[in-house]
Amino acid sequence: MNVQSSSATNLHKKDLRHFLNMNQFSKKEILEWIELMKLLKDARTRNAVPQLFKNQSLGMIFQQNSTRTRVSFETAATLLGGHALMLGAGDIHLGKKETVEDTVEDTARVLARMVDVIMIRTDKYADIERFAEYSSIPIINAMSTDVHGDDTGNHPTQCLADLLTMEEHLPRGKKLEDVTMVVVGDPSTPEVSLGYALSKLGATFKIISPEGYRLPQNVVDAIEANNKVSGGTFLQTTDIDEVKGADFVMAEEWCWGRTDEEIAQRDADFKPTYVVTMDLLEKAGPNALFMHVLPANAGNGRWPDEKEVTREVLESDRNLAWDEAENRLSAMMALLAYYGRPHFRVPDPEDIEYYDVKSKELLSRIFDRRIS
Ligand code: CP
After folding, report:
1. Which residue of 178, 256, 308, 333 is surrounded by the most CB atoms within 10 Å?
2. Residue at 12 is within a domain
3. How far apart are CA 61 and CA 132, in angstroms?
């Protein structure tokens, strides 16, 4: 039998390119993302955001907590004239009756019949790839955390905001490809994405961390392959003096663990050398600026003591982390404008009139009174 689907959805699987990681984009495309973010940020400043996601819905699957990603996606959908649905762990069957691991195909197929774009935050990058394989609408990776597992977690929406923040604060006379970005801490999902993007651009990217805290080899290989083409530089080192000459110093969280012993071990490994202090920023250079994807462990969060960064740095005028967080909103606007557009159908005024009249006629018949 060849049964035709009765779907009213404009499914567009053909040529669909999901937003899964930064390595899928060329230098030209990364620069276009930055251009789109800048334009939409400017539009927001003027309260003139174009309605490029009008009458469309974003499904937000969160299997982990989030502040920035959730709020920025939801706000971006509203600003662009659309709507976002929070599909948190426990809110839908995914994770219970329909698990990410077992029935992700079914959920992907069903949600694609109802919403226009889906963003997913989960543990495994492979689950997002699998979801994308079965989805006929765009899938956005809103962070997959398994960096050192059997697949490579990454955080590409964060990376867009990081790139915009750097672009907005470039040293005089430098382009993005000329900058040196130094991360101090345990490299994780943001560094995978930054590694891909900065190597595509041809910039200098260094990670300074204790022995044993490194990006996985498959990511390093991809970064080095990009650098062969772009002329960029990549270094992973234990030498904190490599911070010298950095235009941007990013602190990455290193304090986590399953047991008190693991946490104590990390404290011993990272402190006091791999902590971003005012002295370290000064060592980087008189104009070096600080970045952090947040949340930061600066003596006011889960831990009573300062971990990867001091509060003094966060409160200083060298700190770009608040701009960086706000730029998540520009990133999400750019993503929804870009991915919502193929779905965008300008309604025919004759159709609107026809369905308004016909629905009211039918409802009048059902209720046996005139409905206008
Ligand atoms: N940086 C980031 O992804 O923040 P959230 O976890 O709050 O979304």
Report:
1. 333
2. no
3. 13
